[in-house]
Design goal:
By secondary structure, this protein is mainly α. Helix content is 72%, strand content 6%. The protein contains 22 helices and five strands. Strands 1-2-3-5-4 form a five-stranded mixed β-sheet, with helices on one face. The two termini are 31 Å apart.
Length: 584
């Protein structure tokens, strides 16, 4: 063995022998955690109460503290509940990107939680965020994920109702009507309705579903909308559902807009009256819009002026709240970093004291090191090939993850600084701020993907297909051929991880460097080799050839670890093409 290869082995051996033998007392001093369970429980009660009272700023601050104090293993339920609550607050405040990023942090914890309600809440939040940003395809995926959980009958029914709601957003009103009708005439809600056993909060859900049937019929210009509107209104009046009464009256106003303008105006005024009582943005905005639609002459000017002033005041309030949330998060992060620095200093001081005590033991273990080196070298040379192969597999994952995390921390600081120092009502500043948020969201998604666990069991092909589908957008279609034409179970686990990461890195590269609208990914088995071919119809890849070659060098290094080869052609007239193969 060369001397250069022997040095790191010697250093490793010294650490292996010195630390376990003579520094056993210093390890607990470094990793010891304070038990904050009692404080976490106390803060959770306070935060939950503030959340229920719509005191979101107070709740938000306490939930952040809970997350900081929690051990994600020991206090996992409180930790996950706090993340879900923060994601809900961000959703309610219209911070959809931050809400999705927060909800994504829950996903790695779900496999440790037996109760499906955590997954149900998380998928529901992510679905609603996608709906709010008009990404209905992804909204439908997560709504269906919530439905497929083994949840309680009521959650199961509500998940199906969420699927119907996405269909409404997509304009597929017939599908929505079919699902809502099924829910309210059979199953959980239908059966309870038949036996008059609906509890008040269940009756409110039932009214929402019946009202949504009416909305769907109205959008289809079908007069059958009216009885559903009337039924929902009757339930809401009986239960004094102040939150949803404005919408019922606004729906009826729109229904009678053409056939009976006077009645439409009456319902619009009633809707606005109730909306002013609850004073929520969505209901008040809809009520004012119906008033404007049903008004004539000076009334149009009157209500239009009220509407404009209302929108301006809401925008100012939302901007103030957004700045308040940003300041809370910034101050909390700053305090957390200062506390962490103090803890590190104390730990280093304890470590230095312990090292002084341990120096006297070094002379006694010198002989043991010499003997151990010879034993270790025999073992090392035996496993050297396998260890180098595994190290190469995960080397790029660590590099990419560290880079993304460092970049993300820098981007967050820049975004918070920009929000504090600039007027976000200015259009250009607002767009710049949204660009910052979009960049942070993109990098967080990348971190999540890079650190996610890869299943190498019988579900490998499904996981691979799902990962590829995540790159599909309204502007990019992906065609997958031959994925299941051979058995993945016969392929080595390390090779499957390499394939997964190689495909992921190719798509990541093409997402940022190419303008393709169609991608084809083909899997073939030829004799004892697997061949995977990527092709797209992009046109501007040659302009960024240097960057692409550098990225594909990482891909090629991965392939070589499993004795594979890679070929690519950036100059193709029909787009960019790359293929690689490896032995089974």
């Amino acid at each position: 063995m060369k001397i250069s290869a022997f040095v790191p082995i010697l250093v490793s051996v010294i650490f292996l022998l010195v630390i376990p033998t003579s520094c056993e007392k210093e390890i607990p001093a470094i990793i010891k955690r304070t038990d904050n369970t009692a404080e976490i429980k106390r803060l959770t009660l306070i935060a939950d109460h503030d959340f229920d009272q719509n005191e979101y700023l107070k709740a938000y601050k306490n939930y952040l503290t809970i997350i900081h104090l929690s051990d994600p293993e020991k206090n996992r339920i409180d930790y996950v509940d706090a993340l879900i609550s923060i994601a809900l607050i961000q959703l309610y405040e219209g911070n959809y990107l931050e809400s999705e990023a927060t909800a994504t942090k829950v996903l790695p914890q779900l496999k440790y939680l037996k109760k499906p309600r955590f997954a149900w809440e998380t998928y529901k939040i992510i679905s609603e965020n996608y709906s709010a940003t008009n990404d209905y395809d992804n909204a439908l995926i997560y709504a269906k994920k919530a439905y497929n959980l083994h949840a309680s009958p009521r959650r199961k029914a509500n998940a199906l109702a969420n699927i119907a709601l996405v269909y409404m957003y997509q304009g597929d009103y017939k599908k929505a009507i079919k699902i809502y009708t099924q829910l309210t005439t059979a199953g959980y809600y239908g059966n309870k309705k038949k036996t008059n056993s609906l509890k008040d909060y269940e009756a409110l859900d039932y009214a929402v579903m019946r009202n949504n049937i009416g909305i769907s019929y109205a959008n289809l210009n079908d007069s059958r909308a009216l009885p559903y509107y009337q039924e929902a209104l009757k339930i809401r009046l009986k239960l004094n559902d102040r939150q949803n009464l404005p919408d019922s009256y606004s729906n009826l106003s729109d229904y009678y807009l053409s056939s009976n303008p006077a009645l439409a105006k009456k319902y619009a005024k009633t809707a606005y009256k109730h909306a002013c009582v609850v004073n929520t943005y969505k209901q008040k905005k809809y009520a004012l819009e119906t008033l404007i639609r049903t008004s004539t002459g000076n009334d149009i000017k009157k209500y239009s002026k009220i509407y404009i002033n209302f929108r301006d005041s809401i925008n100012k309030i939302r901007l103030t709240q957004k700045n308040q949330f940003a300041n809370i998060k910034y101050n909390f992060t700053k305090d957390k970093e200062e506390n962490l620095e103090l803890k590190i200093q104390r730990a280093e001081h304890k470590l230095e004291i312990q090292r002084q005590k341990n120096r006297s033991f070094i002379s006694y273990i010198a002989l043991s090191i010499t003997i151990f080196i010879f034993v270790f070298l025999v073992f090392y040379l035996t496993l050297k090939g396998k260890r180098e192969k595994n190290d190469a597999v995960f080397k790029n994952e660590i590099r990419i993850s560290d880079k993304l995390e460092n970049d993300l921390e820098k981007d967050i600081d820049e975004t918070l600084s920009f929000a504090r120092n600039n007027n976000l009502e200015n259009v250009s500043n607002k767009e710049q701020f949204l660009n910052y948020l979009s960049r942070i969201y993109s990098k967080m998604r990348s971190i999540s993907r890079e650190n996610s666990t890869i299943q190498t069991n019988e579900n490998y092909s499904n996981g691979l297909k799902e990962m590829i589908s995540e790159y599909s957008t309204s502007n990019l279609n992906i065609i997958i051929n031959g994925l299941n034409t051979f058995s993945w179970s016969k392929i080595d686990r390390v090779k499957k991880i390499i394939v997964y990461r190689v495909i992921q890195e190719i798509f990541d590269s093409m997402k940022t460097l190419n303008n393709a609208s169609l991608v084809s990914l083909t899997f073939k088995k030829e004799e004892k080799n697997i061949i995977i071919m990527y092709a797209d119809n992009g046109t501007n890849i040659t302009l960024k050839k240097t960057i692409l070659e550098k990225r594909l060098q990482n891909v090629e290094n991965r392939i070589k670890t499993i004795k594979g080869t890679l070929n690519f052609d950036p100059y193709s007239e029909n787009g960019f093409k790359v293929n690689f193969k490896f032995p089974i």
